[in-house]
Amino acid sequence: MRRRVVITGIGVITPLGDSVDSLFRSQVEGKSGVGPLTYFSAATFPTTFGAEVPNFDLSRYVADASPWHDAGLASQFAAAAARMAIEDAGLFDGAVDRTRFGVYLGTGEGTQVFDTLIDMVASSYQPATRKLDDAIMSQRGIARYELGREYEQELHTPAAHLGDLFNLEGPNFACLTACAAGTQALGEALEIIRDNDADLMLAGGSHSMIHPLGLTGFNLLTALSTRNGDPQKASRPFDNKRDGFVLGEGAGLLVLEELTHARKRGARIYAELTGYGATSDAFRVTDCHPEGRGAIACMRIAVADAGIRPEQVGYINAHGTSTRNNDQVETLAIKAVFGDHAYRLPISSSKSMLGHLIGAAGAVELVIAIEAMRKGIIPPTINYEFPDPACDLDYVPNVAREVRVDHALSNSFGFGGQNASLVVSRFKG
Amino acid sequence: MSRRVVITGAGTVNPLASTLDAFASSLLEGKCGVRALTVIDPSGLPVRIGGEVRDFDARQYLDKKDRKSLKLMVRTHQLAVAAARLARDHAGLSVDAIDPERFGTSLGSGTVSADLADLGPASRASFDFHTGRVCFDKWGRDGLSLIPPMWMLNHVPNMAACHVAIVNDCRGPNNTITLTDESGLSALGEAYRIVRRGRADAMLAGGAETRINPISLARNVKFGHLVAANDDPARACRPFDRDRTGIALGEGSTVLVLESLDHANRRGARPLAEVCAFGCGMDVGCKGAGLARVIRDTLNKAGIRATELDHVNANAGGWVDHDAWEARALREAIGDVPVVAYKGALSNLGSAAGPTELIASVLALQIGRLAATLNCDKIAADCPVNVVRAPRPVTKPFVLKISGTDRGQCAAILVRRWKD
Fold first, then answer.
1. Which residues of A touch B218 (CB under 8 A)?
2. Is A207 a catalytic residue?
């Protein structure tokens, strides 16, 4: 008999709130968290806006923020969300076996100190050979690097901080699969508990690519919306005038717990995590497979893993990035998996309001799917004005809708063709 | 009922060798892959040694149709694709021998710090040498158009696994673990679990990284844990040794084919070894007890005692604190069981370290002879373990491989010699 896994704690840091309630309320109200970028001057970039977490201060969330003094935002968001999730689960002072309590964090690359990196490159670049002079580059690095800042660039540090903060001695993982990382981390954490390698996992995603190199990279890929005149209208998943995604940031950390363990300590249960699928397009690093090959397989595996029929899925929280390609292919894939049911199935994209939280997106969106199920209200896809003939499903346009949902599916599809889907189900005991 | 998982192929590109035979014999002969750096000009660094893969040419590992992708692969990605190709060939796993949807990828990888020349023109156009800062207006206006459009896809760690999946048509699960020195072993562990529970029939799993670049080297100089023995690289990395002073950085990739025993049997593939257990955890504060527990748990999962181990293949690489941490845990968990460490010969390959070192032990199980730990001349008082200091016959069927980070994240994999 497979071990069942439930969600007993949630913490979120998002552009639209730092609690489950405030996040979900803003989702139902259709608020946009998008605005001009403030972290650095982006005035001459093709895109000048994004969805920042407003006024974040880690010391509001943890008693001693000093270990994160040199850490990047993603690591700090993770700590704040984790602290809330642990407290929410009643585990902050809880007498649980710490060796059976692990971490699985989906995250990104470190945020290099931009001035230092560009100094190293500019100083060492040799136009004649188009190469960098290694000696000059090394010397500039040694001259400018600050130990603490550089140490925090090491990719194992955010997950290590979480282990240290809560004395979690169970499996400690960090993964990086672009836009799928948060979902994949939750899925693999689910499997770790099912496999009896842990009873509790603090899992989810945390990411910020709102830094000069992140904006540069996505702008160069022409993946971002450039609707600079009207940022709050820029993220318009499935709408025919969509022109790219909006860069967001944040974190979602959840406490996954084995059911009997949760029952024994009388934990409040949000929902049951019942299905997980992960696949690869194995197509191109630049584009998703045009027929949604990987996405179709991914959703099918997740639904089958949950032990339900596709018709039992009552809501899809879509990847829905607002790029031309993703929304069209995701629609195609949903139709392939759900057949006629696809047309009766409410689908919405949280990214219409939050922007794209990249490695954190899947975790925050799963939280929204859970709340939609618990409250019986599906948040809308905002900015939906002009139907796209290629996107002809029910995207819950602009206005939230009351629907009873027993099983919800959450999709994340990453650059490079990495796909992950989760199914959450109403907990029925 | 969970399935049995075996290793049916391995490919490695590392500072000692790029074939399994040469790797095994180099280790047995006591050769050292830590040398004066030539892949980059190290003259701006106080540390000028490391474990580099010389004369690496990715084209020889790619079919003609895949070579055009090379412009989107930095060295880390190329190393991964090369090792994956070798592993797949070694396993005899041809395209028609596996359902692509049941074939996955799990790699350890790290920050891509090499191959940054593409940012050169933009950096020069927008960096203000007087203030030491980037002028964002110039960067956005003049710089962006000077950077290749696909730049970012070349610089995210997960692209190694994506390229491996594309070249090998792996449509199953695809993950990238980013736990620095533990990445590769944890990626193998996750792949093992995926095959065991039946989510895939085979996985290309391992790790790839290059730390031979100005950023990684300059950073680690700041961290203060690099060995500075520029005049004597072959004796620089000294696992568990009394005179150890630090680690050297390296590069490479090792990928294994992990396959369900049923699938391997069906296609008539003979396993190299069986993966019997995987365990991981965090030794908070690096006290030793946590790693010892992970080791014991891993042995318990397979139902074996420490005395059944031929040897433990350790993480140690000459790092002053870290080797002592590991030794404390080993003493507590396995007592006098022989311990071998190959970072003396390989240096620290980062995300590639665990899989590369594991393969050394798998080869020893096959050959029947275990290579010695290089440069452990006098075992340190704070490293109370039974270090294998001379080549010796393999006498027992099990080997345990350990990896860990400087923050205490740790993992262990137990493998058994294959017998039909």
1. 137-138, 141-142, 145
2. no
CA distance B216 to chain A (A): 9
Answer yes or no: is pLDDT of B141 > 90.
yes
Q: Minimal Cα distance from A417: which residue of B? A: B162
Q: Which of A176, A188, A191 to mutate to test the interface with B (most CBs of B within 10 A)?
A: A176
Of all residues in chain A, the one with the smallest CA distance to B297 is A197
Cβ pair A217:B155 closer than 8 A = yes
Q: How many CB atoms lie within 10 A of CB A39?
A: 14
- pTM for this predicted structure: 0.98
Shortest CB distance from B173 goes to which of A115, A220, A278?
A278
Single out the catalytic residue among A161, A207, A261, A319.
Answer: A319
Q: In this complex, do A127 and B293 lie within 8 Å of one another by their Cβ atoms?
A: no
Tell me how far CA of residue A333 lies from CA of A296, A378, A410, A411, in angstroms.
Answer: 5, 21, 13, 11
Query: Which is the catalytic residue, given A211, A261, A356, A407?
Result: A356
Other C-beta atoms closer than 10 Å to the C-beta of A399 total 13
Q: Which amino acid is at A179?
A: C
Average pLDDT over every residue of A72-95: 94
For A239, residues 6+ apart whose C-beta sits below 8 A from its C-beta are: A322, A383, A384, A385, A386, A387, A388
CB pairs under 8 A between A and B: 299
Does the distance separating the beta carbons of B222 and A163 come in below 8 Å?
no
Q: Where are the alpha helices (DSSP H) in B244-367?
A: 261-266, 289-302, 320-334, 343-346, 353-367
Banded model confidence at residue B1, pLDDT cuts 50, 70, 90: low
Q: Which of A141, A146, A153 is the closest to B111 by Cβ? A: A153
Q: Report percent pLDDT > 90 for chain A.
A: 97
Residue in A179, A288, A298, A391 annotated catalytic = A179
Contact A288, A243 (CB under 8 A): no
**What's the pLDDT score for residue A298?**
98
Q: What is the DSSP track for A297-331?
A: HHHHHHHHHTT--GGG--EEE----S-HHHHHHHH
Q: Given an 8 Å threshold on Cβ–Cβ distance, is B44 in contact with A109? A: no
Alpha-helix residue ranges (DSSP H) falling in B169-231: 183-196, 214-223
- Closest A-chain CA to B124: A122
pLDDT tens-digit series, residues B380-399: 999 999 999 999 999 999 99
> Of the candidates A347, A389, A59, A326, which has an alpha carbon nearest to the alpha carbon of residue A178?
A326
Greater confidence (A296 vs B114) lies with A296
The CA radius of gyration of chain B, in Å to the nearest whole number, is 21
What domains, with CATH codes, occur in chain A?
5-111+153-425 (3.40.47.10), 114-151 (no CATH)
Residues facing residue A202 across a β-bridge: A103, A255
Mean pLDDT throughout B183-187? Answer: 98
ipTM score over 0.85, yes or no: yes
Which helix (H) or strand (E) is B58 found in, with range?
Answer: none
Report DSSP letters for B80-122, one per residue: HHHHHHHHHHHHT--GGGS-GGGEEEEEE-----S--GGGHHH
Q: Measured between beta carbons, which residues in chain A are less than 8 angstroms from residue B38?
A: none
Averaged over B36-43, what is the pLDDT? 97
All structural domains of chain B, each given as residue ranges with its CATH number in brackets, are 5-114+157-266 (3.40.47.10), 276-417 (3.40.47.10)
Residue type, position B38, single letter: T
pLDDT tens-digit map of A11-26: 999 999 999 999 999 9
